[in-house]
Predict the 3D structure of the following.
Amino acid sequence: MNVQRIAAIAAITGAVLGGASIVALGAAAYTAGQPQVELVSSEIDDSAEPRPEQTAVAAPAGTGQTSQVAAASGIDTNAADYNPYLDPLSDQFVTPEARSEWLGKQVVIRECMADAGFDFLEWQWWLGGSPQPTGLDYETTILWSQALYGPDIYNPGGGCAEAGDKAEVEAREAGQPLGAPETPVDPEAPTEREIWLEFQQRVRDCMAEAGHEYLYFEWWNPDGSEAQPLDLTEAERAEWTLALDGNAAGGAAYRWEDAGCWGRAVHESGNDNMH
């Protein structure tokens, strides 16, 4: 599982719950040669979330020979328009069978969420995005998350995600794995990486308005640089970080206006619960 991807994408697609992001991210896990796709619940507190001022991320675990094959074939695997999950030469490739089973499980989860009174958007995680509707207020966001993960969203169990997992296991045991067709990919649609770079530009513009330099940053590039300039004094780093993160309160008292340039970019992207 690409932890760097989870941390980065959670920042712009998860619902912001007063300083925390609740995200559901799919990941292709390959064990014993059998592709499996798991639903993973991740609560990422902003105080612990990897920020771009930290050291550039390491190469994703599992990147190896097949990624080298992709690069050797002439493909720029660090390009913004490259999607490793759709490249058969990449070790992160998600097979059509795995994608179909994932979407079949999503049907079960969507029906369960509908029974609970909530929408659960169509979600092909290998293209990015989120199943959670935008525009939910704070209380509705909590209720939506509880319907998906169970009463304790930080310790999932008993929600619609568990119902999907159960249906997946039962279908496999019966020799009839779940399945559903994919929605055709729009070749003009931005990739997950391109969406991230657009988000980063929002942050960069805001930081420039605040009088700070925010360097170009690619979370997927092991050779990338940090977003925070290296030549800052300790006091300048503190000012830079405050401009980026702000000092917003938690819970229902969260205000994006107090969450620095990061919070502003999340809000302007339509990915917080303040719309």
